[in-house]
Amino acid sequence: MRIENTMRALADPTRLRIMRLLSAMELAVGELAQVLGQSQPRVSRHVAILCDAGLAERHREGSWVFLRAAVGNERGNPVGEAVSRLLATAEREDAEFAAMCDEDRRQLANIRGAREQSAAEYFARHAEDWDELRQLHSPDRIVEDRLLAALGDAPLGQVLDIGTGSGRMAELFAPKADHIIALDKSLDMLRVARAKLQNLPADCVELVQGDFLSLPFQAQRFDTVLLHQVLHFAQDPAAALAEAARVSRVGGRVAIVDFAAHQREELRDRHAHVRLGFTDKAIAALLIEAGYETAEPIALEEGELTVKIWIGTRQGGPASTDIRKAAL
After folding, report:
1. Going by CATH, does the domain composed of 2-110 fall within 1.10.10.10?
2. Each residue of 183-207: pLDDT tens digit?
3. The model's pTM
């Protein structure tokens, strides 16, 4: 029986400590070993038991394996939720267990510090290129404020941030979302995002490595999908939006923030831009083809490059006509 596996998995002090640590933040196996003061192979064995019991989940990013507690709205795991509540109660009521958990969480400060240092070093290596690009368009704060206003007061629900980069959009939208998944193909950027997002509640946000052309999620999972300065990297924007539509619920929204069409050819070489922005007609055609109803685009023209915000609402199915060639 599953409950027997659950109780066996919890019958060890180290595994109880791991579960409390994972309630605070997502951690790599090596990071867990550092906090616990145990060898990585030994910690891996404990992790395997927790995962086999359905109390924790692994996901791989390159050579690293990260762990998260198997609780949350999308996981549908009432046993995991009950265990999480039980351990929180135990920490309040059991002084010895509470002291052990407090010491473990103090050790997390070293993990957070190492992540932030790594992120700072990455930004330092790329700061010149990013600063150059920022100077060409509206200030980030203006773009963010207009995007929040465009989405209005309607609940964001389950949110997917495609191409999360530094994690700024996930950080911005987390307070308004039930749950947010920050996805990026780059391991370097995921580590930067993890440093930025690590102080948010562990059940609020999760990071996933993946490609926007093959999203690792079931159909109709998300209420809100964001593509912030992402679509200009797509060889096939229609395919990227088709994937976004596949994972969007009917009535859900997609928000695209990107450049209006421009002629800055040097961005192809200096910043790997595949597309030199988009016209309103092109984005409208792509959204309709993917099954979205379009809204009036918003233009931010404070810089040399105009930033546009396009919003679409998911309809019952994709458009029947293929208008990709006409749009692009």
Report:
1. yes
2. 998 888 888 899 889 888 888 899 9
3. 0.75
